[in-house]
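Dear colleague,

Thank you for sharing your sequence with our group. We've completed the structure prediction you requested, and as agreed, I am returning the results in plain text so they can be pasted directly into your records. Please verify that the sequence below matches your submission; if there's any discrepancy, let me know and we will rerun it promptly.
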Amino acid sequence: MIILVGGEKGGSGKSCLAQNLAVYLQYKNRDILLLDADPQGTTTDWVKERDENSVLKNIPSVQAAGNIRQVLDDLSKRYQDIIIDAGGQDSEALRSAMTIATHMLLPFRPKRRDLKTLVHVEQLIKLAKAVNPELITKAVITQCPTLPSQFQRILDAKEACESFGLSALNQFTTNRNVYDDADENGLSVFEVDSDSKAKAEIESLALEFLGDF
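Please find the predicted structure tokens below.
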């Protein structure tokens, strides 16, 4: 699988999702590579932090920019799964990855400034699917409030995605400190004992998005 995590708006948790999906797949004994195509290098910094902890299992990673289609084609012959952190902007790396990826996950916070990018995202997906019709695209609503009174905001965000032809996962992620704490220490939520709910969110999300192994 070539799994692309990307979109048009920064701050919605793309790097966090890419990192946690990589560890999830590694736990499933998949041979994985994490590719950082985000100029900010958030995932590269996470891997460096992780490499300094001898207790943690190494995650192979590379950085790439520009047209990465051929790079991905070559790497896909060597790894079972490639997880791409494409960052939060429309870029050549994002567009080229969309032409060869098997799966694309697009995170959106339940906020107007995130959801208004759906117009352009819809066009990007149409262009990509003209070349790569088998591409599986899913939205996921991230950093959601945990208060029951705010649940309608999550439903409204999913409905907005659906209105642009982008199916949203049933599973969403909530605004939990453990995601940031894990990221800063090169960890995933699977390697932090303090919050089992975050672990359950990622497991459920991955199962719904990628299926079982």
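Summary note from our side: The mean pLDDT is 91.

Kind regards,
the structure core
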